[in-house]
Amino acid sequence: MNIKSLLLGSAAALVAVSGARAADAVVVAEPEPAEYVKICDVYGAGYFYIPGTETCLRIGGFIREDIGVGDAGSFDGVNHVTDHMTGDDHSSYWKQTRFTLKTWTGQETELGTLKTYTELRFNFGNNYGDFGDNSGPDGTTNPNRNGSGWQAGNKSYALEFAYIQLGGLRVGADESAFNTFIGYAGNVINDTIVPYGGFQSNVIQYYFDAGNGFSAVASLEEGSGEVGTIDSYVPHVVGGVKYTQGWGGISGVVAYDSNYEEVAGKVRLDLNATSDLSFFAMAGYGSNDNLNDPNNNIDAHGRGFYKQWGGNWAVWGGGTYKFNQKTSFNVQASYDDWKDIGVAANVAYDIVPGFTVTAEVDWQRVGQGAIDNNSVWVAATKKDNVGGLLRFQRSF
């Protein structure tokens, strides 16, 4: 009887405990609130807020494939290789694939808009080199390569841009204001058949915008390359002014090359004839007394970081005509004091938004710079150079 009472009592206790637990509220852990990326439309399309900050970020870039024939790519007849079967020398395609990654940031502060911009470029393809050239795919010269400059491979990567800008002040790696402020020489691929100035440099710049079409820039620059990089505490100096309206604009820049104590300048006129037709004309002039001095430690062959054209003066001109929203025609012609001539023309077609195919034809006529006479720079191994370039580019 005691055992039976004990069992019944235990069962009753278990039922009571179970009932008490069933009456308690069930606690379920709630999920953490998700922090979705918010669109930032202050600086244009594509920006979003970095979670937890007031900084807007945009990520973009492009993938590009270039296929060149003839002298396209270097204009000195480098696209000649040796046939692996016969050993005969023959022409070949020049190819390059590029991946470019870009980032933009923007944030409003009490001192103005704080911005950054970066651009990284990675390349795979053929180097500019003949079969007999000892330069490798990375652009270096190596006598042990036994003439393999024409071989395809991973080439150098480049930090093309990396600068910080607060209001009008910009510091970091940029292209020279001698080019960026006044504008590049047309919408063609090979726009430097007659070169119009050096590009990459570390800079300290200040931009002033009056808000009525007038703007100005002052830039202290380091330059780059053998004849461009400063070798003292004195920087290169660039200054420019610009006036733009709906009809186009007029601009000018002046640069002081501290390495050679020379001055160069350019003026430019842009004209929007219609909504579909636009033109530009640009002229450059520079002193070159010290650039031609054979007593210099570095022989500049008449070309400094800014005055890179042959002789004292050069001119560039061209235009763009839009057949429709997808198709445009671009042309550029150039000429300098050395009688160098360059002509480039292309048709660009947007297959779909973000994917463009461009077909270009280029011609170069080398002037007196091709003659090695009293240390005059040897510009190319051929007087006439013709090439074609087909470009596929997906931008995002």
- The helicity comes to under 10%
Strand content: over 45%
What's the count of strands?
20
Largest sheet: 16 strands, antiparallel, barrel
How many helices? The count is 2
Rounded radius of gyration (Å):
31 Å
Query: Uncertain spans, ≥5 residues at pLDDT below 50?
Result: 129-147, 371-380
> Structural class, from helix and strand content?
mainly beta
Shape: globular
Strand order of the largest sheet: 2-5-6-8-9-10-11-12-13-14-15-16-17-18-19-20
Q: How far do the termini sit from each other? A: 87 Å
Q: What sequence of helices (H) and strands (E) makes up the elements?
A: HEEEEEEEEEHEEEEEEEEEEE
Average pLDDT across residues?
Answer: 83
Report a brief summary of the structure.
The protein is mostly beta strands. Helix content is 7%, strand content 47%.
